[in-house]
Amino acid sequence: MDTKDLGFDSKLIHAGMFDDQFGSATVPIYQTSTFKFKNADHGAACFAGESDGYIYTRLNNPTIDSLEKLVAALENGYRGIATSSGMGAVNTIYSAFLKQGDHMVSTAAVYGPSRVVMEKHYSKFGIESTYVNTSDPENIRKAIRKNTRMLYIETPANPTMDITDLEEVVKIAREHKLITVADNTFCSPYLQKPIDYGFDIVFHSITKFLNGHADIVGGVIVSRDKPLDELMRPVMINLGCNMDPHQAYMVIRGLKTLSVRIDRSQENAMHIAQFLEGHPKVKWVKYPGLVSHPQYVLARKQMDGPGAMISFEMKDGLCAGKTLMDRVKLCILAVSLGGVETLIQHPASMTHSKMDKESRERSGITDGLVRFSVGIENVEDIISDLDQAMKCI
Ligand code: LCS
After folding, report:
1. Is the CB of 85 under 6 A from ligand 1?
2. What is the reported pLDDT for 317?
3. Which pTM value belongs to this model?
4. Domains in the chain and their CATH numbers?
5. Fewer CB within 10 Å, N or C, the chain?
């Protein structure tokens, strides 16, 4: 069935689906590592790319294909490449497009390991990087060098919630002929579609909103066109960053409710952000749905909703933040995000602890910053949990 002209919610249910021999209404799990060839010529034709047959699950698999087509349909891209984790996607992208002597400009407050792997690992192979606050396009322009090859942004950034102007990034990239990459994990394609703005590559930690149930780790990359997909796919295969069929099945299942989950969690998040902003013990709150967010207008322009992620700091800094995290009962003290359950965590000592303190502070990741991923529980229960924890401070 051609799902191209369907609405987003209908694509969530039907895109990527295929007819199997039994008329299964959901995508079957092809839990096999390898596939039988009809004969030696067929095997050779599959390897030569002259037949569509499946070969070996690290290369391709019907369940994984289905997920890749589904996410590509949601992002308005050419094709998806599913990976073992979000970091598998990051490393596939870096390895596919950057070579010795190249330079990358990126958002300073990206997810910690996306930066750490570049600064500590890829630097050993002569790849350079500059991290700036990409919320101001001038910072991007100033960081570009003769050998710059890639603009890599995360918006909203993890965990500062700073927003980068997608249209401006594409404009700068076109002036300098650079590849554009967007980490769309915090929004999901329900709220933001960077390819519609002209981005070349979009990727996700699928572990988060796309799967939505905190029960698998995975990633996915979507390219704008076929040549980009063909450049990355062999890299994913040869690095061994492939997804497993059962993992793919779980994500396809979770994705069906993406829009209803996000509608509910961002409605909750708005109430919680307002509660925090009005609380006398809270110093500041950063949430794209609040008029106080420095890029509120830009968020409204490029995002179809404010999302479910909130950052805030208590007036008494880290000490108060720790007490809050230790005293919540309903909210779970854990890293990760984008699931149906509300999670709270402390980036400076957890997700971003491998970044040095100076880079963290320059990126706006203060020691007192607390990150909140809002789930779909009853909002009054989340607020009363926060309220009782705040009383202990
Ligand atoms: N990009 C973003 C924006 C992320 O938040 C994460 C993981 C990744 C990439 C990497 O994905 P993974 O390999 O974990 O699937 N973020 C995490 C976080 O904030 N807490 O725990 C993991």
Report:
1. yes
2. 86
3. 0.97
4. 8-255 (3.40.640.10), 258-390 (3.90.1150.10)
5. N
